[in-house]
Amino acid sequence: MPAKVKKVPVRKCTGCQEMKGKKELLRVLHTPEGDILLDATGRKNGRGAYLCPSRECLEKAMRSKGLERSLKVRIPEETYENLKKEIESFEER
Q1: DSSP letters of 42-68?
Q2: Residue 76 CB burial class (10 angstroms; 0-12, 13-18, ≥19)
Q3: Quick one: how far is CA 32 from the chain centroid?
């Protein structure tokens, strides 16, 4: 009997539109309370969209409004600034 192959979940980055493994991407979350934040665990309740952990992908998602379409909500400029700061902290690791 052949060994079972574990299926790797794949998601699309809303910035660069590339399909990557779920663990490689950051989840941006729109919570039921209306907040937009990074979900490091990937398990919080709410509507999620995925981004590569790079500033370029966030900027592409901002220009194309891909993040807003995925989360189905308008995102204010200060929220984008907060996301930039959080992604920069991920890039430093």
Answers
A1: S-SSSEEEEE-SSHHHHHHHHHHTHHH
A2: exposed
A3: 17
Please, is 91 exposed, middle or buried when counting C-beta atoms within 10 Å of its C-beta (0-12, 13-18, 19+)? Answer: exposed
The string of pLDDT tens digits covering residues 30-45 is: 999 999 999 888 889 9
Average pLDDT over residues 45-71: 94
**Number of CB atoms found within 10 A of residue 32's CB:** 8
Neighbouring residues of 80: CB distance < 8 A, sequence distance ≥ 6 = 58, 62
Whole-angstrom distance, CA of residue 55 vs CA of residue 64 = 14
Q: Which amino acid is at 27?
A: R
20 φ/ψ angles, rounded to the nearest 5 degrees: -140, 165
